[in-house]
Write a structure and sequence with these properties.
The chain is 79% helix and 0% strand. It is mainly alpha-helical and 184 residues long. It has one domain. Helix 1 crosses helix 3. The longest helix has 44 residues.
């Protein structure tokens, strides 16, 4: 990524991360008026700096960003705003960038959730839910999932973790280092 493109990407992703975190905390929503322009700007940015290859890079990032979170949406734990936010990250940063952001977001969100469950003494609910889910999946092949009685767990605002993962990975890219040594 050349310097000008990196600056534009940083401004777009930084703005997305800050505003999405605020709206997710305040309203439990990540709005279309934020995510859709980021997706469009990401496409335009990559076309300007990469031509057709940039467009493909951006479109694949969008598809992967959506693909990572879509099952969570259907299972009920991820909102559509989270998906569109991750699509925006993919549009701007492309495939490799969105993979790292997804991994960091999952780790950060899981660590936070684990801390909250331990603090509220509800860790047992997580294990009961995992047991019920895997037993249903293994023995009923996903049929009749609504019959499973899940224990109440604490919801998290995942957009904040996408924002943290985005900012962290952007700093990695600019600094020229990587926490995870993945070849994508």
């Amino acid at each position: 990524m050349e310097l000008t493109q990196t600056i534009f990407a940083g401004v777009i992703l930084g703005g997305l991360s800050v505003v999405a975190s605020i709206t997710d905390l305040k309203d439990s929503k990540i709005y279309n008026w934020l995510t859709l322009p980021v997706i469009i700007l990401g496409l335009v940015l990559n076309v300007i700096f990469g031509g057709w290859d940039g467009l493909i890079h951006s479109l694949l990032g969008i598809a992967l960003g959506c693909g990572f979170l879509i099952l969570g949406f259907f299972w009920g734990g991820i909102g559509a705003g989270d998906i569109k936010m991750m699509m925006g990250v993919g549009a701007v940063g492309g495939v490799e960038f969105v993979v790292f952001v997804f991994i960091y977001s999952i780790f950060l969100g899981a660590a936070y959730s684990l801390i909250i469950l331990i603090k509220k003494r509800k860790l047992g609910n997580l294990f009961k839910n995992l047991k019920h889910f895997f037993l249903m999946f293994l023995f009923k092949r996903g049929k009749n999932m609504e019959e499973v009685k899940l224990e109440k767990t604490e919801p998290i605002k995942f957009g904040i973790f996408i924002a943290l993962g985005t900012v962290f990975h952007f700093i990695e890219v600019v600094a020229g280092w990587q926490l995870l040594n993945l070849k994508i």
